[in-house]
What we know:
Elements: E1 4-10, E2 15-21, E3 27-31, E4 34-38, E5 43-45, H1 47-58, E6 62-67, E7 76-77, H2 79-86, E8 89-93, H3 96-104, E9 122-124, E10 129-132, E11 135-141, E12 150-154, E13 157-161, H4 181-191, E14 199-202, E15 216-218, H5 219-225, H6 235-246, H7 255-262
Parallel strand pairs: 3-6, 6-8, 8-9, 13-14
Antiparallel strand pairs: 1-2, 2-3, 4-5, 4-7, 10-11, 11-12, 12-13, 14-15
Amino acid sequence: MKPYIEPFFDPATSTISYVIYDQEGGHAAVIDAVLDFDPKAARTSTASADQAVDFVLAKRLSVEWLLETHVHADHLSAAHYLKCRLGGRIAMGEGIGKVQRAFKAVFGVERRFTIDGSQFDHLFTDGETFSIGALTAEVISVPGHTPADVAYRIGDAVFVGDTLFMPDVGTARADFPGGSAHRLYRSLRRLLSLPPETRLFVCHDYPPASRTPQWESTVAEQRAHNMHVHDGVTEENFVALREARDATLAAPMLLIPSIQVNLRAGELPPPEDNGVSYLKVPLNVLGKASEKAR
Length: 294
């Protein structure tokens, strides 16, 4: 059964979120929803997520799942907000604990914060299947960008997160804690071994000046034209290219707020005695100077 897919592009973070559903008046999942964040004022808002809310309500959908492909470093997750508005279970790949472990000390997270992924309602294993109403979804583990990346195969569509971009943009970086260009290559080949007509939906697009943002391609198009991992690129070639490129990349602009919120399934850190939640800025720990960020 083919899913109905409604994309929502957030220009501030170049993120594409998706509502996937089986039929009008039926059941839905939301993938990689965005919580807006103004870094100058340190304020969150919900305009991007509310587009998905309005769509769900207009289509009379019952949200069963709020799916994350990984712990994003370039936008804050709206999963917790959507759960409060629409219901549903927040889910992530079971590797989340490795990411939480890597960043808990970096951000001086409170001691009682657990690093077992229990902040999420469900942790998926590789190959696990689940339902979205009449739709059947399969989880594909695709580590490399981070240890916890997963893709979701729903009908003829696969939602690849940050693992793969549009063909003229290439692939994800692999230099975050726990990342690996070798594992990323093997994950990419796993995705590109799916049937050629399989539709691939990306989480971000950083288009060249010659085109507008896009988010859908096919396995066949990626195998023929992806600038980093087209057919014929060996693991050795890819790792050399990826590691050389990653060495030039700056930290994503919203890395510091994003990680601290996304480790918590989209919840803000617990408020302090004055009732205010705070994000911490670790000095001289993350990133490096560069003009590039992907």
